[in-house]
Amino acid sequence: MSLDVRLEEIAESELPPVEYRWDADTDILCVTLRSAAVSEGLSGSMDIEGADGAWLTLELSAGRLAAVEVAVWPDVKTVEPLTPPVAAGAARLRVPSSGADGGLEALEVDTPIRAVADKAERTIHFRIGPQRSSRALRVARDLMVEVDARSRIAGLWFLNVPPFPTAP
User: Fold this and answer.
1) Which of 66, 132, 151, 168 has a 20 to 30 A CA-CA distance from 107?
2) Per-residue pLDDT tens for 14-48?
3) Beta-carbon neighbour count of residue 131 at 10 Å?
């Protein structure tokens, strides 16, 4: 199973805001897109598991990306500076249903996941699968998705991530 997606070009003004939330007890980072758009397609989750135990979950609602959860972190390399690519545009990311009814589904993909972050961990890049040519598209105000020439997810860019909460 690959991470095939469809892209619908939209205006920058239509990009939904992003809400980042850290779970301090588990180190889970949840990224929620607040979109009011209506769509059709897969509802459920797309789990991306790395060979090292890293785990990303893409939550889908009616075919649209609704949230990303980093449940188990891969080793994160710090790179200074970490400069995100210039977005090639704004788009809605859709995952069409593979079933006839478009109902709830769960997909699991095993592929390498690599993560780099700037020193402050405010910008985080996840490369998914082998390194390949891709273009970055803004799918939310502080979230970019890299897509290769075959419309497969190649990476995620989390921008303006709040700092991890520290104990009082």
Assistant:
1) 132
2) 999 999 999 988 889 999 998 655 556 667 888 88
3) 10
